[in-house]
Model the fold of this input.
Amino acid sequence: MTELRLTLHPLYFLLLSSQLFHLSYGDVGTAAHYNPPYYPTACYGSRLSQFPPGNLFGAAGESVWDNGASCGRRYLVRCISAVVPGTCIRGQTIQITIVDRAQTSISRPSRNGATIVLSNTAFSQIANISASFVNLEFLQV
Done:
């Protein structure tokens, strides 16, 4: 019988392995949280209709704010690490909507300089709310 040998070119192997072993699909930053009152906001003023069902929303930090263009953008976010082990809720990814600018929000964030400041509801979906901030992965959708 004839033996069939399969030989992979190193470039194909590299391409295949890069598709199988993603470490990150989006950008990486930090997330803080903030308490009510959440309005008026820099994006939509006092319109209550700006807040999505389930209160999964956030305020954009300066690196995401984009001169106000981030208003209404939706992001998939997930906690990837924190100072205290076990803070992140493993495997939990949520979709949030940007409704405000963190730098000018009525309520102050739990930590200044965060990439995205999440509503308490949104933060508690991905991490223990007792943490002042976490590292997160986020992807615009």
About this structure: The radius of gyration is 19 Å. Confidence is low (pLDDT under 50) at residues 11-22.
